[in-house]
């Protein structure tokens, strides 16, 4: 589908155990639509290899026209970060990013975006908070650590507010 290249497209990448229209994505997609953005969510279900997911996302992004904002959760955050090296997005929001985990080709992917923000839970049992602290420190990324677990279910209000603020900041540049 050809897109109006004057509009921002928000592209979501879900985590390993989720789907393209999970709770957080649906919540954030509503905010993006309120701001007259195009919304896309790539379906990675059935693909457990994070680097195969990177290839899928790169093929998807190659077809987009105009600026885009990437949002990834867990493995999806890894995927958008790796893809950002090829497709420099306007902004990225990384939720509980899967960094420094075995089985991932790039242990310390470099985020390439106009703005990158991370939200992570202190009590994450999947991706240790120390991994994310290290990642954010090494790349000078804004980090919001919440009293929450990996799914960030108790942090939805904070994530909504942060995403809305990031989106408004990006949109004021167009």
TrEMBL record:
Highest rank taxon of the organism: Bacteria
InterPro entries: AB_hydrolase_1 (IPR000073), AB_hydrolase_fold (IPR029058)
Transmembrane intervals: 77-101
Domain annotation AB hydrolase-1: ranges: 10-109
Keyword line: Membrane, Transmembrane, Transmembrane helix
Protein name: AB hydrolase-1 domain-containing protein
Organism: Syntrophotalea acetylenivorans
């Amino acid at each position: 589908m050809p897109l109006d290249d004057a509009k921002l497209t928000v592209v979501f990448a879900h985590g390993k155990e989720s789907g393209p229209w999970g709770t957080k994505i649906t919540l954030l997609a509503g905010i993006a639509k309120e701001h007259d953005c195009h919304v896309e969510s790539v379906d990675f279900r059935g693909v457990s290899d994070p680097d195969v997911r990177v290839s899928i996302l790169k093929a998807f992004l190659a077809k987009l026209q105009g600026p885009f904002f990437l949002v990834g959760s867990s493995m999806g955050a890894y995927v958008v970060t790796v893809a950002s090296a090829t497709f420099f997005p306007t902004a990225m929001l990384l939720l509980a990013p899967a960094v420094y985990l075995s089985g991932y080709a790039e242990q310390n992917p470099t985020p390439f975006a106009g703005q990158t923000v991370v939200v992570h839970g202190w009590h994450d049992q999947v991706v240790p908070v120390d991994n994310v602290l290290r990642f954010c420190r090494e790349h000078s990324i804004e980090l919001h650590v919440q009293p929450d677990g990996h799914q960030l279910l108790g942090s939805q209000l904070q994530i909504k507010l942060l995403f809305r603020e990031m989106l408004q900041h990006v949109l004021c540049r167009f």
